[in-house]
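User:
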Amino acid sequence: MPKVIDPIRLIHELGGNRVWVYDSQKESLCCRLCSKFFNIKIRSNLFHHVRSNKHQKHLDLFNKTQTIELEEQTSSVTRPTFTMDLTRMMIACNIPLAKVEQPEFINFFEKHCGKRLPSRTTLTKCMEEECETICSKIKEQLKEKDVFVQADETTDSQGRAMTAIMAGTLM
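Assistant: Predicted structure:
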């Protein structure tokens, strides 16, 4: 009689539910960290994978992320760094903040980053805070200096009005 393999016990031995997912139809385990599937009947492949450098690096990164999330949850003074970094990235790449409410965008981040996205309103508040920080830095740099401001107004190909403003210090 073939040996019966208990997937729950096997998952526990290999690192738990946060790392492994069991697919009963295929009788396979999927490593969430490495996106690899393994037949549960070939246990040696599973244990070899757990000891591999690639899996260890992904596990270290995962544990580091979990630690950072815990620190962010306990710190009530500042916004989580993930939220601020996401806001900066979306602004720098000209990605509308409303994109965080799109289902595919949410699924991508949850699947590949293991993070839940903040709402658009949270990102807007972060953007406002970031703008205030940047404005105060600019004011500090321009303090006691002569400055110039140049404005240019134009319309784009669709007839929308645009204004570009350039500012700097005089030498």
